[in-house]
Design goal:
Layout (H helix, E strand, L loop, with lengths): L1 H15 L4 E5 L2 E7 L11 E7 L10 E5 L12 H19 L5 H43 L5 H33 L9 H6 L17 H11 L1
Antiparallel strand pairs: 1-2, 2-3, 3-4
Length: 228
């Protein structure tokens, strides 16, 4: 009974999936499932469902395996190697409900729907994250225009900072002014002797009486009288 039903189901599947089904043996074949995704311009993901009939199928569950085609382009929201266990677990209830009946077409439809739903959920989650990030960035940008709400605490904090800044500016300006005055100060020239004035043509009649060492002549005469 089992083998006859298996052959009959295989013929029906061949008419439904003429280009997607590939025989591996008399009791094993592979069906290529292409996902239909909304608003997705990337290459649609493909899942390979391998079905192997046990001797007592359909009274016993078929042996199933999921894989991605070799060299397939990875999709952003589904990875068959990582997601296959989750997808296969989702088929357990379908298998239980269909024991005793040909169920492969139902399993193909179920795994296709589950994979498409998984992709859509992940796309929606990613879009939500992007939206929240955009809103957060917008809120931060708006803070620049709205400023900080003013209350007693914020005003006192601002006032303290303002007064501190004013005092620092005052001290800096005084230091700069003192430095400029120091640079502008001219050193007073040393007093010249009579000889130096004479040599420079600056001596007056009174100044000519000074000797070359800068000592007045009358003082020298007094010293001589005292010596006598």
């Amino acid at each position: 009974m089992g083998r006859e039903e298996q052959t009959e189901e295989r013929e029906v599947l061949d008419s439904i999936f003429p280009d997607e089904i590939t025989d591996i043996s008399e009791t094993e074949y592979r069906i290529s499932i292409t996902l239909d995704l909304l608003d997705d311009e990337s290459e649609p993901p493909v899942i390979l469902l391998t079905v192997r009939y046990p001797e007592d199928y359909p009274d016993k569950a078929p042996l199933l395996e999921l894989a991605a085609p070799q060299n397939s382009i990875p999709h952003e929201y589904i990875n068959i190697a990582e997601d296959k266990d989750q997808l296969l677990r989702g088929l357990e209830e379908v298998i239980e409900e269909n024991l005793g009946m040909a169920m492969v077409f139902t399993l193909v439809s179920a795994v296709k729907e589950a994979a498409e739903q998984l992709v859509e959920e992940r796309k929606a989650a990613a879009a939500k994250v992007q939206e929240e990030a955009a809103l957060a960035a917008e809120r931060e940008e708006n803070k620049k225009f709205h400023g900080t709400p003013v209350n007693r605490e914020t005003f006192l904090s601002w006032r303290e900072g303002f007064l501190k800044e004013m005092e620092e500016n005052r001290i800096r300006e005084e230091e700069e002014r003192a430095a400029e005055l120091k640079k502008a100060r001219i050193k007073e020239p040393a007093k010249l002797t009579g000889k130096q004035l004479w040599e420079r043509g600056l001596a007056t009649a009174g100044q000519e009486e000074n000797d070359e060492d800068g000592v007045p002549t009358e003082d020298v005469q007094k010293l001589k009288v005292g010596d006598n």
